[in-house]
What does this fold into?
Amino acid sequence: TDLGQFIAQLPKAELHIHIEGSLEPEMMLALAARNGVQLRYGSVAELRAAYRFTNLQDFLDLYYEGMSVLRQEQDFHDLAMAYLRRAASQNVRHVEIFFDPQGHTERGIAFKTVIDGLWRALKDAEREFGLTTGLIMCFLRHIDEASAERTLQQALPWRDRIIGVGLDSSEKGNPPSKFRRVFERARDLGFATVAHAGEEGPADYVREALDILAVRRIDHGNRALDDPELTARLAAEKVPLTVCPLSNLRLCGVSDMAQHPLKHMLRAGLMATVNSDDPAYFGGYVTENFLAVQQALGLTREDIVTLARNSFTAAFCDEAVKQRHL
Ligand code: HPA
Ligand code: ZN
It folds into this structure.
């Protein structure tokens, strides 16, 4: 359709993508073979058949198993390069990429291996595709704060390669308040801060992320709409929400894309953006996410423009890069 074409060619920024969640089944099997890693799945068809989730934890179990094939610097490079090539092909002009260092260091892969591979891909992609990039390191919230603090310490030799810190993994029972001190330390060190909140957890977790962690963006934030006062505050303070429609559908946060809250977010004046989260697992990159919500919710061309503009407004990139697209 016309609007589909319009979405595809529109310059976009992607602010919520877990690089480990861009590991397509084909690459997972190839890296498993290259590194001699035994997986429970022997074919692309078997893997895809396993991608039927009922909630976040269901997905995370497979996501952590999948990342076990990533062992060498080249693996991290190849993973990020494949994502960046796809992103550039969808006219994503700026991308801020999450990675989960503890998902690797906890199984004996050095922080240096991870960061060197990702960094080399980012620099190669900037040259080859002309996009701009940033890296955001996430703490796994199902693990304790002491481990997050050690991870922050481990990152310091590469301070200049990391723009921010985030918080992901199992939300329920792991409130933002659990990470108050490590986020304070990160802010003191000059990192931008974000946190997943209100994906499955309550509106209160969104409030905690703002008040206790002082984050500059909320990842997801869907459940904030349960609380009218919080919704009004998010609008007044122009707090960006990095919304991930296909993720919400696949993890059963919404029963049907027609029930997705994105349109309510826009009508409430929230600074919503559209992102892919874990594109290899949820069935689409950023353009497919835009198309899915546009069709299910009947978003207008103006809504699409607002969403794309919001993605640059909410980005942590240089003001000059921002102005080029706004
Ligand atoms: N939510 C929480 N943690 C995650 C996600 C997500 O959608 N993807 C990868 N880690
Ligand atoms: Zn996420």
Q: What stands out?
A: DSSP finds 17 helices and eight strands in the chain.
